[in-house]
Amino acid sequence: MTSRSPLRRALEFPLEDWLGVAVTFAILVVMSTQIFLRYALNESLIWSDELSRYLLIAMAFLGCATGVRKRVHIRIDVIDQVLPEG
Questions:
Q1: pLDDT, position 33
Q2: pLDDT confidence of residue 37
Q3: Terminal C-alpha separation, the chain
Q4: For residue 18, what is the enclosing H or E element?
Q5: pTM summary value
Q6: What pLDDT is attached to residue 11?
Q7: Cα separation of 70 and 51, whole Å?
Q8: What's the mean pLDDT when you consider all of the chain?
């Protein structure tokens, strides 16, 4: 069993996963800032809700790409069970 360096394992981590982590962290930062500003300072950002919405949409697309790459999407196999084999 060959052990790989942590840097090599990090570089083999797919781009979609890195982007998903970055988008999730960005949503966390934007929403936390909005909550702090709204309740502690009685001010609010006018763009934070829209940015969070668009980041959530981007995260859904990145999750779909990861699901396709790992082949873990939900599959309906009724047709496979009903039709006879090839």
A1: 94
A2: 93
A3: 40
A4: helix 15-40
A5: 0.69
A6: 60
A7: 28
A8: 85
4, two tokens: 């790989």
Contacts of 60-67 spanning 24+ positions with Cβ under 8 A: 62/16, 62/19, 62/20, 62/23, 63/20, 65/16, 66/14, 66/16, 66/17, 66/20
Q: Which residues, given as ranges, of the chain have pLDDT below 50?
A: none
* Region class of 71: left (phi > 0), else alpha (psi between -120 and 50), else beta: left
Task: Give whole-number Cα distances, 41 to 12, 44, 45, 47, 55, in Å.
Answer: 43, 8, 11, 17, 25
The burial of 23, by beta-carbon neighbours within 10 Å (0-12 exposed, 13-18 middle, 19 or more buried), is given as: buried
**40-44: long-range contacts, CB 8 A cutoff, minimum separation 24:** none
Measured CA distances, 8 to 2, 3, 20, 55, 81 (Å): 12, 10, 20, 29, 43
